[in-house]
Design brief:
Blueprint: H1 2-14, H2 20-31, H3 36-44, H4 49-79, H5 103-116, E1 121-122, E2 128-129, H6 131-134, E3 154-156, E4 161-163, H7 168-177, E5 182-191, E6 203-213, H8 218-233, E7 239-246, E8 249-258, E9 275-284, H9 286-291, E10 300-307, H10 308-316, H11 323-326, H12 329-332
Parallel strand pairs: 1-5
Antiparallel strand pairs: 2-4, 3-4, 5-6, 6-10, 7-8, 8-9, 9-10
Helix pairs in contact: 1-4, 2-4, 3-4, 5-8, 5-10
This protein binds phenylalanine.
The site of phenylalanine (PHE) has 11 residues, from β9 and β10.
């Protein structure tokens, strides 16, 4: 009989109730006239006299236990879940704090997106390069000052290992590996041996573009860059190409866009010219095509290269280049809404 009492106690202890009907069902099962406890009372008559005291106490204790348990379950379903936690349950949840994308990443992605719409795909190459891919294949004369220790970080002289000073090296790698047509853009980090200041840094980022096929002309170059400028800086943006020099392009040009701060009227930002320079470009020099194994009598092409920092400065007016690499959260958070 004691075993039966203990089993019932365990059963009652484990009982749960989701609502008032559950509680009532438990009451009927254990405490009603025909409930388990009453049945025990009936059996009590047959208990031998010497055990009556012990078993009588056990049944009474079970009855008290069941009554208390069922009362507390009833209270719980009437009052809802316990609210004595030390929390303000009505508080609005804390806002989900997302990280921000780096402004240079935002602008790089936007540039890639614009050129993608013209059919350009992305190509990449190594940052640690050799003289051939950064200079020689690109028609730099052996005594060109850009090879000087002043500008280039050399890692080793013989054999030559250096940090690329521009992404034009990726043009060479692409043209050595494949035959035209090419319509690629090549984003990447470049290194130059410059003292770090607000206007210069020892590393920065470029996006190079290359288009080589039969019959590509300077007009194609101009139209591509006009499309880019207007997508990036707005439909009223004007472009201007000025003759320039790069060893790897002939003819070469530098491109200005109309200053969007003063609308071309002239202000401090554009040094009162109404124009700001954004990139270098030109028709790929036949020597470069030949150095890369491409027949310059069959194919022509154009190339352009620009600094991502420069475009970001123009778009977001960041005046100090060092901000881009200092990872000051206050600066980075200003670009939260620029996604
Ligand atoms: N590589 C040049 C630079 O770093 C930019 C450029 C690329 C110019 C392609 C013309 C054509 O300044």
């Amino acid at each position: 009989m004691l075993d039966k009492i203990n089993a019932l106690k365990a059963e009652i202890e484990a009982a749960t109730a989701a609502n008032a009907a559950d509680v009532e069902a438990l009451r009927i099962k254990y405490l009603s006239k025909k409930g388990e406890v009453s049945l025990l009372m009936n059996d009590f008559r047959n208990v031998p006299a010497e055990q009556k005291r012990e078993i009588g106490q056990a049944i009474n204790a079970l009855k008290t236990f069941a009554t208390e348990k069922i009362n507390s379950l009833r209270e719980a379903v009437e009052n809802g879940p316990a609210t004595d936690l030390n929390l303000d349950l009505s508080r609005t949840p804390a806002p989900w704090r997302l990280g921000t994308r780096h402004p240079l990443s935002l602008v790089r992605e936007e540039m890639i997106d614009i050129f993608r719409r013209l059919g350009f795909t992305v190509a990449e190459g190594p940052e640690i390069e050799d003289d051939w891919h950064v200079f020689s294949a690109l028609n730099f004369a052996t005594d060109h000052p850009a090879r000087d220790m002043q500008d280039t970080f050399f890692i080793n002289r013989e054999p030559d290992v250096l940090l690329r000073t521009h992404t034009s090296s990726v043009q060479v790698r692409a043209m050595e590996k494949h035959q035209p047509p090419f319509r690629i853009i090549m984003p990447g980090r470049v290194y130059r041996n410059e003292a770090i200041s607000a206007r210069a840094h020892c590393f920065f980022h470029q996006v190079e573009g290359l288009y080589v096929d039969k019959g590509v002309t300077f007009a194609d170059l101009r139209q591509t860059l006009l499309y880019f400028a207007q997508e990036m800086f707005g439909p009223d943006t004007k472009i201007r190409l000025r003759p320039s020099y790069f060893p790897f392009t002939e003819p070469s040009a530098e491109m200005d866009i109309s200053c969007d701060l003063c609308g071309g009227k002239g202000c401090g930002f554009c040094k009162h010219t109404g124009w700001v320079e954004i990139l270098g470009c030109g028709m790929v020099d036949p020597n470069v095509l030949e150095a890369c194994g491409i027949d310059s009598k069959v194919y022509t092409g154009f190339a352009f290269g620009m600094g991502i920092e420069r475009i970001t400065n123009l778009k977001y007016r960041v005046s100090d280049l060092r901000l881009f690499s200092e990872n000051d959260v206050r600066f980075l958070e200003e670009f939260t809404s620029a996604h």
